[in-house]
């Protein structure tokens, strides 16, 4: 009998980073669920890892939306310059901790890969087990703005530094892959502050590898200009 071997998962979902724009991931999850589409496995980075973790933990999109609205969750991910020293992730960590039931990544109801950047090796790492809260926070720890996170003696920062669209863990594992990119890089006319320049530079870096990555997804949901 010939034919391709059935893959382990039916629907895989990739959730990009994007700071406060990560709020859009919740809307996408809601739309997919309403269409009868439920991911069997998720790969997320930064804001995408946070939204993915909450969903994989058994929360509905409406419940996650309420969490974000009530706590101004993604406000803590806005790109702002610290006035003194490094900012702390205390508020964001507390909000996530209060809304996660699982303690380990492998305890989640839906398998999840969380991407973080290993500063020691200079490579991306994809976590599918281990401390859920610490790994989610590491995935969204923007360099310079926040202090890095140490996991098992290694130092980690935002996964988007090297990979803001972590499709790699899902390749060859899923019948179809849906990718969600919330990082627009359309034309921008003015740069009035140093932070606007910095944010734009990060967005361009994030988008640089996207064209080759989206070749691995079946469907891409993204702003018009990416």
Q: What does this protein look like?
A:
With 226 residues, the protein is α/β, with parallel strands linked by helices. It is built from seven helices and eight strands. The longest helix has 14 residues. It is globular. The protein starts with 8 loop residues before the first strand and ends in a 5-residue tail after the last strand.
Topology at a glance:
Blueprint: E1 9-15, H1 23-34, E2 41-45, H2 47-56, H3 61-71, H4 90-99, E3 112-118, E4 123-127, H5 132-139, E5 149-151, E6 154-158, E7 174-180, H6 194-207, H7 210-213, E8 219-221
Parallel strand pairs: 1-2, 1-7, 2-3, 7-8
Antiparallel strand pairs: 3-4, 3-6, 5-6
Helix pairs in contact: 1-3, 2-5
List keywords for this structure.
single chain; 226 residues; alpha/beta; globular; eight-stranded mixed β-sheet; 7 helices
Short description:
Strands 1, 2, 3, 4, 5, 6, 7 and 8 form an eight-stranded mixed beta sheet that branches.
- Structural class, by secondary structure, is alpha/beta
* Alpha carbon gyration radius: 17 Å
The major β-sheet equals:
8 strands, mixed
SSE string: EHEHHHEEHEEEHHE
Note the overall shape: globular
| Cα-to-Cα separation, first versus last residue | 43 Å
Total beta strand runs: 8
Mean pLDDT over the residues? 86
Strand content: 15-25%
| Total number of helices | 7
Low-confidence stretches: none
Helical percent range?
25-40%
